[in-house]
Design brief:
This protein has 21 helices and 12 strands. The chain is α/β, with parallel strands linked by helices. Residues 1-41 and 377-386 have low confidence and may be disordered. It holds the Pfam family Abhydrolase_4.
C-alpha cells in the first residue's frame, strides 16, 4: 500500500475555513476499569524506538518530516506506515519549554495544516504568542488523515455526484432508506478498494495515541504537553490513560463524552443533533430580541421567515454561478441551505454571515449560503462537499462498537425526526456507513479513559456548543482523575483563542506553568450578535 509523503509546504486554511472546521465535526461509553477487550489492545511487546526525526524546512518557522510507526502495535516489528509531522519552532528558543502536541479534531482535520496556520509575526493563529514563543508546536496527521495516508473511499466522479445530489429535508437522512443503504454499500466498498483491510482496521484512537508516543520518542522528549479540541479530546485522554507518566500538562477544549464515544455512538449523534438545533434557536432568539432595525430577517418573526425560505428553496432552487475565488457554483436548494445554516449557526463568528446570507437568499441571491456550504470540510452528518468525510468515517467506525443492527439505526432516526426539528433530518442515519464497515477492529480499546496518574487535565466546555453539549464537559471532568472544569458562556464550538482573554489566560497558564484555575470557573463571553462580529 503506497502512502503519500508529507508535502514540503503547507497552505494555511482561510479564516472562514477554520471557523467552519471548528463549527462542525462528527462525533459519536460507561465502562469501569480496563476490561478484557481493553487489555487485548495493549501491545504484547514495546514498539521499537523510532529513529530521530530528520526535519526539512517547509515554511517560515516550520519544519516537516516523516516518522514511521508500526501498522499494528500488537506486531511492533511488522509493517510500518509513515506519518506526516510538522512543527512550528519556538520563537523564543532560550525560554523553550518543550513540544506542544496538538490535535484540532474531526476526526479528519489535518494537524499539520493547523500548525502551518500559525502566524508568529502577526501574533495570530490558533495558539497565543506566548505559547508559540515557549513551545515547538507539533502537529501529527493521524494515520488515515491528511498527509498520513488519508482514507479514500470515493472517486472524484462519485464525490461530484454526491455534491450535486438532490436531498429532501422532509426525509430522514435526506433520501429514502434504500438509497441511503445503497450509498453506504458504495462508500464502504470503495474504502476497501482504496486501502488494505489491515490499514482500515488500524485507524483507532488508541493507535493514534501510540503513534504520538512514537513521535515523542523520535523527538527525544521525555514528556509532552498536549492541547486537543473536539475529537482531539478523545486523543488526549487516550494518551493520558495509556501513557500517564509522559504527560507534562494537558488541555482539552470542547470535549467529547468519551463514554458515549466508546459505548453508545447513536445516542452521541442524537445529542449532537439536539445541540445543533439549540444553536439555531439561539440565533432566532437573538435576532428577535435585537429588533428589526438590527436583524431585519423575518421582520420580527425569523422562524416563520426561515421556514418559508427553506420551503421556497426546496420547491424552486436558486442557480449559483461559479466565482473567480474558486466557489464551484451549482444549485442552492432547501437541503443545502439547511446544511450551511447548521454550520454557521454554531459559530458566533459566522452569525453576521448567516444573517446576511439569509437576507440575500430571500432576494434570490444564493451565493453566500452556497459558499458557506461548499467550504464545510467536516461535519457531524456529512455535507455536500465534505471531502474529509472518508477519513472521518474511517476513524469513528473502528473506534465505535458494532453498529450492524439496522433496526437500531431506524429507531434512532425515528427518534430524531419525531422531534420535528429543522436540522434533524440530516442527522438521521448519519452512522449508516459504520453499519456496513468492511473491517473489524478485533482489539478495540474499551477501557474507561480516566487519565489516572497524569497531571490534572483542564477541561474547557462551552455553555452552548453546537457539537459538544456542556454536559459532556461535565461528564469528562468527572471521568478524568483530578480534572478541572472551566466553562465558557455563549455560543460556539472550541473556546481557546475565540472567546476572549479569560479562557486564553487560563489555558496558557496550564500549558506554560501548570497553573490551574479554580474548578468550576466560568468565563463570560461577549454576547453574539446577528449583524456584527463578537466584540465589535
Amino acid at each position: 500500500m503506497a502512502l503519500s509523503p508529507p508535502r514540503t509546504r503547507l497552505s494555511p486554511p482561510t479564516r472562514i475555513g477554520v471557523a467552519l472546521a471548528a463549527a462542525a465535526l462528527a462525533l459519536t461509553g460507561c465502562s469501569g476499569g480496563i476490561g478484557t477487550a481493553a487489555a487485548a489492545a495493549v501491545p504484547a511487546a514495546p514498539a521499537p524506538t523510532p529513529d530521530p526525526v530528520e526535519w526539512e524546512e517547509c515554511g517560515k518557522g516550520l519544519d516537516c518530516a516523516t516518522v514511521e510507526v508500526p501498522l499494528e502495535y500488537t506486531d511492533p516489528d511488522g509493517e510500518r506506515i509513515p506519518l506526516a509531522v510538522t512543527r512550528h519552532r519556538a520563537t523564543d528558543p532560550d525560554r523553550r519549554i518543550g513540544s506542544l502536541f496538538i490535535n484540532p479534531g474531526g476526526p479528519g482535520v489535518p494537524a499539520t495544516e493547523t500548525v502551518a496556520s500559525i502566524d508568529a509575526a502577526e501574533g495570530t493563529g490558533p495558539y497565543s504568542p506566548e505559547v508559540v514563543a515557549r513551545f515547538d508546536v507539533v502537529g501529527v496527521d493521524p494515520r488515515g488523515v491528511g498527509e498520513s495516508g488519508a482514507v479514500r473511499c470515493l472517486t472524484d466522479e462519485q464525490r461530484a455526484e454526491q455534491a450535486a445530489e438532490d436531498r429532501d429535508p422532509a426525509l430522514p437522512g435526506g433520501k429514502r432508506f434504500g438509497e441511503l443503504l445503497a450509498d453506504a454499500r458504495t462508500f464502504t466498498q470503495g474504502c476497501l478498494d482504496h486501502q488494505s483491510p489491515e490499514f482500515l482496521a488500524s485507524l483507532s484512537t488508541d493507535n493514534v495515541a501510540r503513534d504520538l508516543d512514537q513521535v515523542r520518542a523520535a523527538l527525544g522528549e521525555e514528556k509532552i504537553t498536549f492541547y486537543g479540541a473536539s475529537y482531539g479530546t478523545v486523543v488526549g485522554p487516550m494518551y493520558a490513560t495509556l501513557f500517564p507518566g509522559r504527560v507534562r500538562q494537558m488541555v482539552i477544549d470542547a470535549p467529547v463524552d468519551t463514554g458515549l464515544w466508546q459505548n453508545d455512538p447513536l445516542r452521541l449523534l442524537d445529542e449532537v443533533a439536539r445541540s445543533n438545533e439549540e444553536t439555531l434557536d439561539a440565533w432566532f432568539d437573538t435576532c428577535r430580541s435585537e429588533g428589526v432595525q438590527v436583524c431585519a430577517f423575518g421582520d420580527g418573526d425569523p422562524e416563520a421567515a426561515f421556514d418559508a425560505l427553506i420551503a421556497e428553496l426546496e420547491a424552486e432552487p436558486l442557480k449559483v454561478p461559479p466565482t473567480e475565488g474558486g466557489s464551484p457554483g451549482g444549485t442552492l436548494d432547501g437541503a443545502m441551505a439547511l446544511e450551511a445554516v447548521r454550520a454557521a449557526a454554531g459559530s458566533r463568528l459566522l452569525w453576521p454571515t448567516l444573517t446576511a446570507s439569509l437576507l440575500a437568499a430571500e432576494r434570490g441571491d444564493g451565493r453566500a449560503l452556497h459558499f458557506v456550504a461548499s467550504l464545510i470540510t467536516i461535519a457531524p452528518f456529512g455535507a455536500p462537499f465534505a471531502t474529509l468525510q472518508e477519513p472521518h468515517n474511517g476513524v469513528r467506525c473502528v473506534d465505535w462498537p458494532e453498529l450492524d443492527d439496522l433496526s437500531e439505526h431506524r429507531a434512532a432516526a425515528k427518534k430524531i425526526t419525531a422531534r420535528g426539528e429543522r436540522l434533524g433530518s440530516r442527522a438521521a442515519y448519519s452512522a449508516l456507513n459504520c453499519a456496513l464497515w468492511p473491517v473489524a477492529n478485533e482489539d478495540r480499546f474499551t477501557g474507561e479513559l480516566t487519565g489516572a496518574g497524569a497531571p490534572p487535565i483542564l477541561v474547557v466546555g462551552g455553555r452552548l456548543d453546537n457539537v459538544s453539549p456542556h454536559h459532556w464537559a461535565e461528564s469528562m471532568a468527572d471521568r478524568l482523575e483530578g480534572a478541572v472544569l472551566l466553562t465558557r458562556e455563549g455560543v460556539g464550538h472550541v473556546s481557546y483563542r475565540t472567546s476572549g482573554p479569560c479562557v486564553d489566560k487560563a489555558v496558557d497558564a496550564v500549558l506554560i506553568d501548570g497553573r490551574q484555575p479554580a474548578d468550576g470557573t466560568v468565563c463570560d463571553d461577549t454576547p453574539p450578535a446577528t449583524t456584527r462580529p463578537p466584540g465589535a
